[in-house]
Structures are given as structure tokens and as C-alpha cells.
Design a protein that fits this description.
Layout: E1 5-6, E2 9-11, E3 18-20, E4 27-28, E5 31-33, E6 40-42, E7 49-51, E8 54-56, E9 63-64, E10 69-71, E11 92-94, E12 99-102, E13 140-143, E14 149-156, E15 168-172
Parallel strand pairs: 1-4, 2-5, 3-6, 4-7, 5-8, 6-9, 7-10
Antiparallel strand pairs: 11-12, 13-14, 14-15
């Protein structure tokens, strides 16, 4: 990347997760997991900071950024306790399966910089590319006599006018000839 980037994920790359080789701009809310070398590497020609990011279980360093600031991020034991940084298991939903969303109880939830924009749910920024969204609707399930569950409503994504990614809602096993929303 020649400058900055926001809300990106790099997992299982055969080299670096992210490389900055010049320019100016911050890396914000990135999730960099299981890359063969560093999670983030930047040479001295880059001027920026790493903010609200997670670099976890990479082959070498989490943040090799030539003296640039790392703030309110998770993944480097040497930085823990300074500038809001942590070194605690981020508790991904399914790290092995590469579902890098944050589980409830993750230390990376609401641990971003207080000055960062709020998450989609209106709370303090989370660390990483995938914010927790506790405003997602509950899965709807209608119990039938034998205790089984039918008619489930599921969602994927985050509802927002400013996002280009889709927000999907779908219904499985809907009863025939029944109205629903």
C-alpha cells in the first residue's frame, strides 16, 4: 500500500500481511492473522500509525513499522500496556476456520482509540477489521410440538447507508402460504 488503509484483513499470506513502502496515512482497523512473516511491515519512508488493529499469530513480528506509532492495537507483547496496546488472545469467532469476527468477551471489543469513529452499533471502536455488532437481530425460531425448530431468519453483514457491502436477511424453512416480514 502506498499510503493508508482501513478495515482490511490479511490471513495466511505466504509473506507479509501488509507492506507500506512509502507515502503517508494510517493503517486503521486491520486484522492480520497467520501470515508467514510480519503482520505489518513499513519502511522508514512511510509516515503513519497503526491504530485499532489486530496482528495475531504471524510468523515473525506483529508490527515491524520502523518506529511509527502503534496505538490501541493487539498482538505485540513488547507494546502491551503502552498507548492503549494489548497482548491478549482476541478471541476470534473461529480462528482455524478464518472467521475473524470477535466473540463476545473479546478484549478487542470497545478497545480502539477513544478518538476513532464509533462502530456500527454506536459503541467505542473495536480493534480489527470486523467490529462486533450486537444490534444484529436475534435468530427467530418457531418451536413446534416435538421441540424442533423451524422458520429461521438469519442475517449477514452490517446495515448502513454508507457501506458498499451488502446486508442480507433471509428466511429458511418458511411455512407455505404464510405472510411474514
Amino acid at each position: 500500500f502506498p499510503a493508508g488503509a482501513e478495515r482490511i484483513a490479511a490471513a495466511d499470506c505466504l509473506n507479509l500481511g501488509v507492506l507500506f513502502d512509502g507515502g503517508a496515512g494510517d493503517l486503521r482497523q486491520a486484522t492480520l492473522v497467520g501470515n508467514a512473516l510480519d503482520g505489518v511491515q513499513a519502511d522508514a519512508a512511510w509516515s503513519g500509525a497503526v491504530v485499532d488493529s489486530i496482528a495475531w499469530a504471524n510468523g515473525q513480528q506483529a508490527f515491524d513499522v520502523s518506529g511509527a506509532e502503534v496505538r490501541f492495537s493487539n498482538g505485540d507483547a513488547a507494546l502491551a500496556g503502552t498507548l492503549g496496546n494489548l497482548f491478549e488472545d482476541p478471541l476470534f469467532a473461529d480462528e482455524a476456520g478464518r472467521d475473524l469476527g470477535l466473540q463476545t468477551g473479546s478484549p478487542s471489543i470497545d478497545a480502539g482509540a477513544p478518538s476513532s469513529p464509533l462502530d456500527p452499533n454506536g459503541s467505542r471502536a473495536d480493534q480489527g477489521a470486523y467490529p462486533e455488532n450486537d444490534l444484529l437481530p436475534e435468530t427467530f425460531c418457531e418451536q413446534v410440538d416435538d421441540g424442533t425448530c423451524v422458520s429461521t431468519i438469519e442475517t449477514w453483514g452490517f446495515a448502513s447507508i454508507s457501506r458498499t457491502e451488502p446486508f442480507l436477511v433471509w428466511l429458511d424453512d418458511a411455512p407455505i402460504d404464510q405472510m411474514g416480514l
